[in-house]
Amino acid sequence: MLNPFKRYSEKVGQPPGTLVYLGEDRTEPVRITIIDYDETHYEEEEVQTVEECVPFIDTESVTWIQIDGLHEIPIIEEVGECFGVDPLLLEDMMNPTHLPKIEVYEDYVFILLKSLDYNAEAATVSREQISLIIGPNFVVSLQENRSEIFKSIQNRLRNAQGRIRKMHSGYLAYALIDLIVDHYFIVLDEISERVQVLEEEIMKDPSPEVLAKVNVLRAEQQLLRRPILPLRDVLIEILDDEIPLLGENTHPYFRDVYDHLVQVIQMLEMVRSSVSGLFDIYTSAVSHRMNEVMKVLTIVATFFIPLTFIAGIYGMNFKFMPELESQWGYPVVLLAMLGLGIGMFVFFKVKKWL
Question: Which parts of the chain sit beneath pLDDT 50?
Fold first, then answer.
């Protein structure tokens, strides 16, 4: 998991707009893919430089430029030069810990947001920063790595499914954001299932190992709030300002995304409450187990206290103890102790203490 302050010291003292990648070290090359389309035309090509994408922007078709990787600073600088992006936005783009935001300019709209993915094998949640630069007839998406989160949209474009090939760049931006929000549902569903599994484990065996799992889940749940909650403000600004570059006819679609995000936030609060409840369940289970142990120990001690008292009396070294001279003294004492134990057992049963 990325430490938010791991490499931020590299930026201290640098002028505003200085590009420093603050994410995890990566060695794979950055991949640049162009998808150019309209209702009757589709073209997909992988290129080596951002400059090769510029001719596509001058066409009447919609161009989607995918850049997978933020760690090569020259490519990010090239994005700024080719699309006229403010250096301060490029700086935010290279900081994977930055909160979601939106900036509206005359020629483009910049949206920064986070995608979430759940790894079922490792039972962990991964986050990825995604930046969108939206122009009149183009969208540039920049991701941290080569994830397949937008694969379904690529397939819809290739197969001309739905209305996406008939719409402008604002609708493509909506589709990307909508897909990211839909993934939030998947991640929260998986975490909810983990909560239920942990609850069953706690009831069966409230061990320190289970408590460690609960602590990990609580940390993940807290990290989910950072990418999800600020996105609500981004969508509110889109809906309130009715940004021309996103198109007037996309307003209902962004309203739908906002409604989905509200549901996600409600689910997040439910998950938060459930995770907090796990600690209460764990505490109650541990207390219950301790009470059961103390109950058993108390009953055992209660059984042996009178027996020890009798044994202690006849263990005293007095010379004149009549029972010691009796032929039946020893078996009588043993029978008395046995009867006392049976009587106590019956008494505990009647009181339902056993």
Answer: 1-2, 4
